[in-house]
From TrEMBL:
Naturally occurring in which organism (per UniProt): Aquimarina mytili
GO function terms (MF aspect): arginine deiminase activity
Protein name: arginine deiminase
One BP annotation, GO: L-arginine deiminase pathway
Catalytic reaction equation(s): L-arginine + H2O = L-citrulline + NH4(+)
Pathway named in the protein's UniProt entry: Amino-acid degradation; L-arginine degradation via ADI pathway; carbamoyl phosphate from L-arginine: step 1/2
Organism classification: Bacteria, Pseudomonadati, Bacteroidota, Flavobacteriia, Flavobacteriales
EC number of this enzyme: 3.5.3.6
Enzyme class label: hydrolase
Length: 304
């Protein structure tokens, strides 16, 4: 397989889509690693496996409709394998295994059959354990790489901070010709409305020159201003706290003019259609309860 990813929106040809099959029982509070899951465990509304499986099949169906080759993880019994995005990432022709939260370490084994199709010289793994990064924090945007991080002193105790500055430096070392820009994100283990778990929870490019953004997701206002200067204010679609909580920035592009989005994102989907983007709507509100959405459940391998 010849990997090729240059940005978030070029026509998609091959992707890994996670699976909710054998997701395991409702986690205990101390087993959860994001505040939105915790909220639903406490409320007794944690998503049912059967509902999540149906939602993910709806995405698989759209991908097949567009002739995208879809890889799925092998099933690990009673293990959460929904959010494929975070376990590895592709930039250009390199496949980089993430140094992920220890709770999620087993997920990568389940896509070994995909890795076996890639030239081993193109498969990378960070050399030491203190380098942290997850795919949800990393976005290639042509000659730029955007990376979400957390610069707070409490980083070591913050399990919702998944990418550190060593992670940023490692990615930078692999792509000396790219401009790497990191963004310090707001984190909260208590309130999901204040938690930008990954960069894709508060920002994502769409189309050719547009992006979705949640200003309050950025800890340093200068980082937000960088993106305003980069894209231009008129090209940004701002989402509020509630829209971020429902994960509006986490749609998924099949092409510059085709996206998969959640069916309840009325304001966002209307904006996308006004740009002549085809919006393929799916139900994904059960998946959303685990603080991830469409970008999080997909890991692109090949785009045009
Ligand atoms: N790319 C993402 N935003 N992924 C979301 C992952 C959500 C998952 N509950 C976690 O905490 O790891």
């Amino acid at each position: 397989m010849n990997l090729n990813i240059q940005n978030e929106t070029s026509r998609l040809r091959a992707v890994v889509l996670g699976t909710a099959v054998s997701n395991g029982p409702v986690p205990k509070l101390e087993e959860a690693y994001d505040p939105k899951s915790i909220e639903h465990i406490k409320a007794g509304t944690y998503p049912k496996e059967s509902d999540m499986v149906l939602e993910m099949e709806a995405v698989a169906k759209v991908l097949h409709k567009y002739d995208v080759k879809v890889y799925r993880p092998e099933i690990i019994q009673d293990y959460n394998q929904i959010f494929s995005r975070d376990i590895a990432l592709v930039i250009e022709d390199k496949f980089i295994k993430s140094n992920i939260l220890p709770d999620r370490e087993k997920e990568i084994k389940a896509i070994q059959h995909v890795i076996d199709e890639i030239d081993p010289d193109k498969v990378y793994k960070a050399p030491s354990e203190d380098i942290h990064f997850e795919g949800g924090d990393i976005m290639i945007h042509n000659d730029h790489i955007f990376i979400g991080t957390y610069k707070g002193d409490d980083y070591p105790d913050c399990i919702v901070a998944r990418t550190n500055m060593k992670g940023v430096a490692y990615i930078e070392s692999l792509f000396p010709n790219k401009t790497v820009k990191e963004f310090d994100l707001n984190k909260s283990m208590k309130d999901p409305k204040d938690n930008a778990l990954h960069l894709d929870c508060c920002f994502q490019p769409v189309g050719t020159n547009k992006a979705i953004i949640h200003k309050e997701g950025f800890r340093n206002p200068r980082d937000y201003e960088y993106l305003v200067d980069f894209f231009g204010m008129d090209n940004l679609f701002h989402i509020d706290k509630n829209e971020m909580y429902h994960m509006n920035s986490n749609i998924f592009s099949i092409a510059e003019d085709v996206v998969i989005s959640e069916k309840n994102f009325i304001r966002l989907n209307t904006w996308l259609r006004s740009l002549n983007i085809t919006v393929e709507e799916v139900p994904y509100s059960e998946i959303a309860k685990q603080e991830g959405l469409l970008r999080c459940t997909t890991m692109p391998l090949i785009r045009d």
